[in-house]
């Protein structure tokens, strides 16, 4: 990407107006770490949004609000009961990039290896997006697929996301496979489990990297709902339910290996989530 | 291409620069003589271009120069322990690297020192895990990591000792 000019707005409305008037040639820069992946010959006007007031993590009773410009390293360092985004932040490529990359940048443009779309799709919650108007949407609606994502965000600005606090009887786990020591994952899997009366009340599983856009496995989830909170149920998972999906194996993996890896990791994250929900962690 | 002016504090001194919008911070710093900031992979993976921006280690090859506007940037040239006989004096991290033989060709060393400096400024007594996290973006292809980690552990121990006294 070639930056032919830049502006540094200090208000959200000003930033959006720039983007609106520049159209296709506008490019928001938060941390700027994804510019490397934009077509080399694309000429853009950078709108540096790093001075907008969108920083920080605010704890509420049942949720956390995270400003879009909060860096991955600030998320990694945040330790508080029920805050779980730090688990994914720890797996994010390296310190120099964690220090500049923002969560807003990570979810505004979804690469196959992006960590947080997989995590957020699993946790669900809310996202505030501002163009000429502001709207607060459900994360699961925005991240349903690449089309809903594109339509919801367009060239508007993500202000914050709000995710639920993990409470007693709930568990979450995130697994990221990388072939080399880098950020580009070959398979990512996240799961969330909520228990009630020693049964699985809710379960969510999202897979990333092996698909173009992260995918929730609704049928597999439904097959586990209502089952007893017992680790043995994971031995009976019907993995044939995955057959209908078109996997994109990365890093030289065969399709067979890729599917095997995903199945193994699904079991791993479910076991970890259940352990946490049962208070065994 | 239009040239534009930005300003930031570089090694403690407020300066103004004329830049091209597409120029990376790494390119600007080297253009104005800060050659301790090294060219490496140019994709944020090797750490040889590491500088400190507002207290955090960052990859200057990924950042556009304009992103430094209004910020505070420190390069390896700005972290010496003083100046004597025409030379910069090594700081405590550099001293430990020398004692521990934590470098051979030295190309990655400025980057490691900057990552370590950001870490010690934030936490003077990092544990082993913290040391590994704060240096996980720096690659060394001749010395390996053990001696580098030992140097940083030694310094952490010294800081601990000092605080105890
Ligand atoms: C070497 C390398 C390794 C990487 N490893 C990982 C990894 O391990 N995991 C991972 O997930 N990603 C990784 N990435 C990709 C990238 O670093 C992340 O996606 C990062 O979170 C992007 O954040 P940013 O602030 O730098 O975004 P930017 O590059 O500034 O922006 C990204 C996109 O989002 C838009 N945007 C940014 N902020 C907003 C906002 N608030 N509202 C609306 N639009 C916005 C921008 O216009 C742009 O299209 C890696 C990148 C590199 C270069």
Could you please say which CATH topology of the largest domain in chain A applies here? Uridine Diphospho-n-acetylenolpyruvylglucosamine Reductase, domain 3
The rough form of chain A would be described as globular
Strand share of the residues of chain B? 15-25%
Strand order of the largest sheet of chain B: 2-1-5-3-4
Count of domain modules of chain A: 3
Distinct compounds present: flavin-adenine dinucleotide
Secondary-structure-based class of chain A equals alpha+beta
Top-tier CATH class of the largest domain in chain A: Alpha Beta
Q: In angstroms, what separates the terminal alpha carbons of chain B? A: 59 Å
- What is the averaged pLDDT score of chain A? 95
H and E order of chain B:
EEHEEEEEHHHH
Q: Any idea how many domains of chain B?
A: 2
- Global Rg of chain B: 16 Å
CATH architecture tag of the largest domain in chain A: 2-Layer Sandwich
Any idea what the CATH superfamily of the largest domain in chain B is called? [2Fe-2S]-binding domain
Helices of chain B, by number, come to 5
* Beta strand count of chain B: 7
Total count of strands of chain A: 12
Describe the structure.
The complex is a heterodimer of chains A (281) and B (165). Chain A has 281 residues and is α+β, with helices and mostly antiparallel strands. Chain A has 3 domains: 2-48, no CATH class; 57-164, Uridine Diphospho-n-acetylenolpyruvylglucosamine Reductase, domain 3; 170-277, Enolase-like, domain 1, CATH 3.30.390. In chain A, 29% of the residues lie in helices and 27% in strands. Chain A contains 10 helices and 12 strands. Chain A has helices at residues 12-22, 72-77, 85-89, 95-98, 103-108, 116-123, 139-142, 146-153, 218-224, 255-277; strands spanning 2-7, 26-29, 43-48, 57-59, 63-67, 126-130, 134-138, 157-164, 170-178, 185-196, 199-208, 215-216. In chain A, the strands form 3 sheets. In chain A, strands 4-5-8-6-7 form a 5-stranded antiparallel β-sheet. A 4-stranded antiparallel β-sheet of chain A has the order 9-10-11-12, with helices on both faces. A 3-stranded parallel β-sheet of chain A has the order 1-3-2, covered by helices on one side. Chain A is globular. The relative contact order of chain A is 0.12. The model of chain A has no long low-confidence stretch (mean pLDDT 95). Chain B has 165 residues and is of the alpha+beta class. Chain B has 2 domains: 4-78, Beta-grasp domain (Ubiquitin-like (UB roll), Roll), CATH 3.10.20; 82-164, DNA polymerase, domain 1 (Orthogonal Bundle), CATH 1.10.150. In chain B, 33% of the residues lie in helices and 18% in strands. Chain B contains 5 helices and 7 strands, in the order ββαβββββαααα. In chain B, a hairpin with a 2-residue loop joins strand 1 (4-10) and strand 2 (13-19). In chain B, helix 2 packs across helix 5. The radius of gyration of chain B is 16 Å and the shape is globular. The mean pLDDT of chain B is 97. Chain A binds chain B through residues 2-6, 8, 29, 32-33, 35-36, 46, 48, 50-51, 71, 73, 90, 93-97, 99-100, 182, and chain B through 1-2, 4, 21-22, 43-45, 47, 50, 53, 56-59, 62-64, 66-67, 69-70, 115, 133-137. The structure holds flavin-adenine dinucleotide (FAD).
């Amino acid at each position: 990407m070639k930056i032919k000019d830049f502006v540094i707005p200090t208000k959200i409305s000003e930033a959006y107006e720039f983007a609106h008037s520049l159209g296709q040639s506008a490019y928001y820069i938060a941390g700027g770490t994804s510019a490397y992946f934009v077509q080399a010959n694309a000429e853009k006007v950078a709108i540096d949004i790093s001075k907008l007031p969108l920083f920080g993590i605010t704890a509420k009773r049942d949720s956390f609000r995270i400003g879009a410009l909060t860096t991955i390293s600030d998320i990694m360092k945040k330790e508080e009961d029920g805050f779980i985004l730090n688990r994914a932040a720890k797996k994010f490529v390296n310190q120099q990039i964690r220090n500049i990359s923002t969560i807003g940048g990570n979810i505004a443009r979804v690469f196959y290896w992006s960590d947080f779309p997989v995590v957020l799709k699993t946790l669900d919650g809310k996202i505030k997006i501002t163009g000429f108007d502001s709207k607060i949407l459900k994360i699961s609606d925005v991240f349903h697929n690449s089309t809903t994502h594109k339509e919801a965000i367009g060239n508007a600005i993500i202000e914050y996301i709000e995710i639920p606090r993990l409470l007693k009887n709930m568990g979450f786990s995130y697994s990221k496979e990388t072939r080399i020591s880098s950020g580009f994952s070959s398979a990512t899997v996240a799961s969330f489990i909520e228990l009630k009366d020693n049964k699985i009340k809710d379960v969510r599983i999202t897979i990333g990297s092996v698909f173009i856009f992260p995918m929730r496995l609704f049928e597999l989830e439904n097959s586990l709902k209502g089952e007893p909170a017992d680790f043995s149920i994971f031995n009976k998972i019907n993995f044939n339910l995955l057959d209908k999906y078109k996997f994109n194996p990365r890093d030289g993996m065969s399709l067979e290996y890729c599917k095997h890896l995903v199945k193994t990791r699904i079991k791993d994250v479910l076991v970890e989530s259940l352990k946490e929900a049962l208070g065994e962690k | 291409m239009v040239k534009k002016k930005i300003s930031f504090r570089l090694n403690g001194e407020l300066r103004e620069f004329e830049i091209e919008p597409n120029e990376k911070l790494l390119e600007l710093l080297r253009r104005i003589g800060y050659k301790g900031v090294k060219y490496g992979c140019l994709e944020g993976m090797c750490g040889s271009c590491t500088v400190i921006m507002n207290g955090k280690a960052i990859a200057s090859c990924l950042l556009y120069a304009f992103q430094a506007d209004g910020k505070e940037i420190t390069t390896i040239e700005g972290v010496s322990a003083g100046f004597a006989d025409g030379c910069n004096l090594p700081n405590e991290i550099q001293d430990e690297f020398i004692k521990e033989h934590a470098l051979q060709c030295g190309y990655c060393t400025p980057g490691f020192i900057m990552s370590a400096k950001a870490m010690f400024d934030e936490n003077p007594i990092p544990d082993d895990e913290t040391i590994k996290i704060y240096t996980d973006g720096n690659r060394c292809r001749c010395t390996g990591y053990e001696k580098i980690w030992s140097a940083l552990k030694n310094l952490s121990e010294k800081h601990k000792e000092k605080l105890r006294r």
